[in-house]
Design goal:
alpha/beta, 6 strands, two-stranded parallel ribbon, NADH_quin_OxRdtase_su_C/D-like, globular, NADH dehydrogenase (ubiquinone) activity, 2 helices, four-stranded mixed sheet, Ech hydrogenase subunit D
Protein backbone atom coordinates (compact mmCIF):
# COMPACT_ATOMS: atom_id res chain seq x y z
CA UNK A 1 0.00 0.00 0.00
CA UNK A 2 1.30 3.45 -0.89
CA UNK A 3 1.75 6.24 1.60
CA UNK A 4 -0.89 8.82 0.63
CA UNK A 5 1.30 11.65 1.90
CA UNK A 6 3.87 11.05 -0.84
CA UNK A 7 2.28 13.03 -3.65
CA UNK A 8 5.29 14.98 -4.87
CA UNK A 9 5.12 17.41 -7.76
CA UNK A 10 7.90 17.13 -10.32
CA UNK A 11 8.73 20.35 -12.17
CA UNK A 12 9.37 19.77 -15.89
CA UNK A 13 9.52 21.78 -19.11
CA UNK A 14 6.59 21.78 -21.49
CA UNK A 15 8.67 19.81 -24.03
CA UNK A 16 9.48 17.15 -21.43
CA UNK A 17 5.87 17.01 -20.32
CA UNK A 18 4.50 15.84 -23.66
CA UNK A 19 7.01 12.97 -23.76
CA UNK A 20 6.25 12.06 -20.14
CA UNK A 21 2.50 11.94 -20.83
CA UNK A 22 3.07 9.74 -23.89
CA UNK A 23 5.19 7.33 -21.84
CA UNK A 24 2.68 7.26 -18.97
CA UNK A 25 -0.12 6.42 -21.40
CA UNK A 26 1.95 3.58 -22.87
CA UNK A 27 2.62 2.32 -19.33
CA UNK A 28 -1.12 2.14 -18.57
CA UNK A 29 -1.58 5.33 -16.55
CA UNK A 30 -4.77 7.37 -16.79
CA UNK A 31 -5.14 11.12 -16.67
CA UNK A 32 -6.49 12.23 -13.27
CA UNK A 33 -6.62 16.00 -13.66
CA UNK A 34 -5.12 19.15 -15.10
CA UNK A 35 -5.27 22.32 -13.03
CA UNK A 36 -3.91 25.82 -13.40
CA UNK A 37 -3.36 29.05 -11.52
CA UNK A 38 -2.15 32.40 -12.84
CA UNK A 39 0.87 34.11 -11.33
CA UNK A 40 2.74 37.23 -12.38
CA UNK A 41 3.79 36.55 -15.95
CA UNK A 42 3.05 32.83 -16.08
CA UNK A 43 0.53 30.09 -15.50
CA UNK A 44 1.41 27.20 -13.25
CA UNK A 45 -0.19 24.09 -14.73
CA UNK A 46 -0.17 20.71 -12.97
CA UNK A 47 -0.89 17.45 -14.77
CA UNK A 48 -1.69 14.38 -12.68
CA UNK A 49 -1.74 10.76 -13.82
CA UNK A 50 -2.32 7.60 -11.81
CA UNK A 51 -1.98 3.85 -11.94
CA UNK A 52 -2.45 1.21 -9.23
CA UNK A 53 -3.23 3.80 -6.51
CA UNK A 54 -0.10 5.78 -7.35
CA UNK A 55 -0.55 9.40 -8.43
CA UNK A 56 2.21 11.32 -10.15
CA UNK A 57 2.09 15.10 -10.62
CA UNK A 58 4.02 17.14 -13.17
CA UNK A 59 4.19 20.93 -13.07
CA UNK A 60 5.13 23.42 -15.72
CA UNK A 61 5.49 27.18 -15.40
CA UNK A 62 4.11 28.42 -18.71
CA UNK A 63 4.76 32.07 -19.62
CA UNK A 64 1.47 33.90 -20.29
CA UNK A 65 2.30 34.45 -23.96
CA UNK A 66 3.41 30.84 -24.70
CA UNK A 67 1.26 28.02 -26.07
CA UNK A 68 1.16 24.41 -24.97
CA UNK A 69 0.26 21.49 -27.19
CA UNK A 70 -2.89 19.59 -26.28
CA UNK A 71 -2.62 16.13 -24.76
CA UNK A 72 -6.05 15.11 -26.07
CA UNK A 73 -4.38 12.98 -28.74
CA UNK A 74 -2.83 10.92 -25.90
CA UNK A 75 -5.57 11.15 -23.26
CA UNK A 76 -8.96 12.01 -24.85
CA UNK A 77 -10.30 13.21 -21.47
CA UNK A 78 -7.70 15.99 -21.53
CA UNK A 79 -10.09 17.87 -23.85
CA UNK A 80 -12.34 18.76 -20.90
CA UNK A 81 -9.53 19.93 -18.64
CA UNK A 82 -7.82 21.84 -21.45
CA UNK A 83 -10.99 23.69 -22.43
CA UNK A 84 -11.40 24.61 -18.77
CA UNK A 85 -7.89 25.98 -18.24
CA UNK A 86 -8.07 27.78 -21.57
CA UNK A 87 -11.37 29.44 -20.80
CA UNK A 88 -10.95 30.19 -17.09
CA UNK A 89 -7.21 30.93 -16.82
CA UNK A 90 -6.30 31.90 -20.37
CA UNK A 91 -3.81 29.06 -20.89
CA UNK A 92 -3.06 28.92 -24.62
CA UNK A 93 -3.75 25.26 -25.45
CA UNK A 94 -3.44 24.41 -29.16
CA UNK A 95 -4.49 21.35 -31.14
CA UNK A 96 -7.33 20.12 -28.92
CA UNK A 97 -9.44 17.32 -30.37
CA UNK A 98 -12.55 19.26 -29.36
CA UNK A 99 -12.23 23.01 -28.83
CA UNK A 100 -15.31 24.70 -27.35
CA UNK A 101 -13.92 28.13 -28.37
CA UNK A 102 -14.49 29.64 -24.92
CA UNK A 103 -18.09 28.39 -24.72
CA UNK A 104 -17.38 25.48 -22.34
CA UNK A 105 -18.83 27.42 -19.40
CA UNK A 106 -21.60 29.99 -19.27
CA UNK A 107 -19.65 32.85 -17.77
CA UNK A 108 -20.03 36.61 -18.08
CA UNK A 109 -16.37 37.53 -17.79
CA UNK A 110 -13.61 36.36 -20.13
CA UNK A 111 -10.90 34.32 -18.34
CA UNK A 112 -12.18 35.20 -14.86
CA UNK A 113 -9.38 33.37 -13.03
CA UNK A 114 -6.59 34.88 -15.10
CA UNK A 115 -6.16 37.68 -12.60
CA UNK A 116 -2.53 37.26 -11.78
CA UNK A 117 -1.64 36.94 -8.15
CA UNK A 118 1.47 38.06 -6.37
CA UNK A 119 3.06 35.61 -3.98
CA UNK A 120 4.32 37.25 -0.81
CA UNK A 121 6.52 35.16 1.43
CA UNK A 122 5.26 35.22 4.98
CA UNK A 123 8.01 36.25 7.34
CA UNK A 124 8.80 33.89 10.16
CA UNK A 125 7.61 35.32 13.45
CA UNK A 126 8.61 34.25 16.92
CA UNK A 127 6.04 33.85 19.62
CA UNK A 128 6.78 36.22 22.45
Amino acid sequence: MNNYNDFAITKVTKDELYNIMQKKYEDGYRLSQICSIAFEGYNEVIYSVNKDYLMENYKIDLPIDEEIKSFSDIFPAATLYENEIKELWGVKVVGMNIDYHNKFYRIKEETPFKKQITVIKKEDTKDE
